């Protein structure tokens, strides 16, 4: 089968992954309204293409935090890549290195931060961080990623508790015995008997996290801090006031609060509030180069894909993730040309037909 678009990879993954693994990756919270709206929202946005603009040469290159990447799509932090492909995050890291884009590695990786860095020594990586009740756990992993050359911390703030994902409960989802959350290997020995949730003992996440924890992070690291999980202008303003370097507009792929807005619908008010003081990124629902174009036009500096990377892994490991990224880059280049944009800097809100929003 010729893989033409990301939906082809989705169908392949659905057919070839086990039911519980497929359900885990595909899950949204509760009725999956927000998960589904992340995709549908793009279909409500119409473009205003410009013509006769000499698009014989086009350039998709952009920068994030001052670092050049080949196009404005990176890999979002997603857990347990070894469920989809035996090399897991190592394959993802090599693919993003080859394509020259940003990979946000997940705390809940089935390969360690050291193994990921070794697999792709020249890759551009950020690290996604949760804060735990035991702050020493968080601090230890920050020290490790600093030493390994990770370039930013992505502080995920929308999981004081885990959303209710019905199929995971029905399937009694847990990691198979041969896999583990490698970053915490050996760290929970004293809690070996406690109930496990997504590879770590239940109740390790700290529901008391607040804005003061941004200050705590800044006090222990010099890495740039990016807040992931902002959906309102009020929280965007607070993030800027607290001195972060970036915001990822995200609803956790619709896996946390159901009934919240699609991320692309939140993007304009956040971009308008931030006014260029920090970079704004987003994830959720990106399936085509057209989607990328719309997000960049509405002010995102870069977008990140989650589930599609898993589908690429399920298809052919590193090669599959490279294929996913290449398809998105080719589609973005074509959509840019057909709408009259020669480079990423020319993509702006004039492309968006606001009467339809």
Gist of the model:
With 357 residues, the chain is of the alpha/beta class. It has twelve helices and twelve strands. The radius of gyration is 19 Å and the shape is globular.
Distance between termini?
37 Å
Point out poorly predicted stretches: none
**Rg, Å, rounded:** 19 Å
Mean pLDDT: 95
Shape, principal axes of CA atoms: globular
Strand content: 5-15%
User: Biggest sheet, in brief?
Assistant: 8 strands, parallel
Order of strands, widest sheet: 3-12-11-10-9-6-5-4
> What would you call the structural class?
alpha/beta
Summarize the helix and strand pattern as letters: HHHEEEHEHEHEHEEHEHEHEHEH
Instruction: State the helicity in percent bands.
Output: 25-40%
**Given the structure, what is the number of helices?**
12
- Compute the number of strand runs: 12
Oligomeric state of the chains? Answer: single chain
Structure characterization notes:
The chain is an alpha/beta fold and 357 residues long. The strands form 3 sheets. Strands 3-12-11-10-9-6-5-4 form an 8-stranded parallel sheet. Strands 1-2 form a two-stranded antiparallel ribbon. The chain has a two-stranded antiparallel ribbon with strand order 7-8. The mean pLDDT is 95. Helix 4 (89-99) crosses helix 5, helix 9 crosses helix 10 (263-274) and helix 11 crosses helix 12 (307-338). The chain has helices spanning 6-16, 19-26, 33-43, 89-99, 113-119, 135-148, 166-171, 212-220, 233-241, 263-274, 289-297, 307-338; strands at residues 62-64, 67-69, 73-75, 102-105, 124-129, 153-156, 196-197, 200-201, 225-230, 246-249, 279-283, 302-305.
């Amino acid at each position: 089968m010729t893989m033409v678009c990301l939906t082809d990879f989705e169908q392949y993954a659905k057919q070839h992954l086990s039911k519980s693994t497929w359900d885990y990756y595909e899950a949204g919270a509760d009725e999956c309204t927000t998960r589904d709206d992340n995709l549908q929202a793009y279909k409500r946005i119409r473009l205003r293409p410009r013509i006769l603009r000499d698009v014989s040469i086009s350039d998709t290159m952009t920068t994030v935090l001052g670092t050049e990447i080949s196009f404005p799509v990176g890999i979002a932090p997603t857990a347990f890549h070894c469920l989809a492909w035996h090399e897991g995050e190592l394959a993802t890291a090599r693919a993003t290195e080859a394509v020259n884009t940003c990979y946000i590695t997940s705390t809940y990786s089935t390969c360690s931060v050291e193994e990921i860095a070794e697999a792709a020594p020249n890759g551009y990586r950020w690290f996604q961080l949760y804060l735990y009740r035991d702050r020493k756990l968080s601090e230890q992993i920050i020290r490790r990623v600093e030493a390994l050359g990770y370039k930013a911390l992505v502080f995920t703030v929308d999981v004081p508790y885990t959303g209710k994902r019905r199929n995971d409960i029905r399937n009694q989802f847990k990691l198979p015995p041969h896999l583990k959350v490698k970053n915490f290997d050996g760290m929970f020995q004293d809690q070996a008997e406690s109930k496990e949730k997504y590879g770590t003992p239940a109740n390790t996440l700290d529901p008391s996290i607040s804005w003061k924890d941004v200050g705590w992070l800044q006090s222990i690291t010099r890495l740039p801090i990016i807040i992931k999980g902002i959906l309102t202008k009020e929280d965007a303003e607070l993030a800027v006031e607290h001195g972060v370097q970036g915001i990822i507009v995200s609803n956790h792929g619709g896996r946390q609060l159901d009934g919240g807005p699609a991320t692309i619908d939140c993007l304009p008010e956040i971009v308008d509030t931030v006014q260029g003081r920090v970079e704004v990124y987003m994830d959720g629902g990106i399936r085509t180069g057209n989607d990328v174009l719309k997000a960049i036009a509405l002010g995102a500096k870069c977008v990140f894909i989650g589930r599609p990377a898993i589908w690429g892994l399920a298809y052919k490991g590193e090669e599959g993730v490279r294929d996913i990224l290449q398809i998105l880059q080719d589609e973005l280049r074509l959509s840019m040309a057909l709408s009259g944009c020669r480079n990423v800097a020319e993509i702006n809100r004039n492309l968006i037909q606001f009467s339809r929003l």
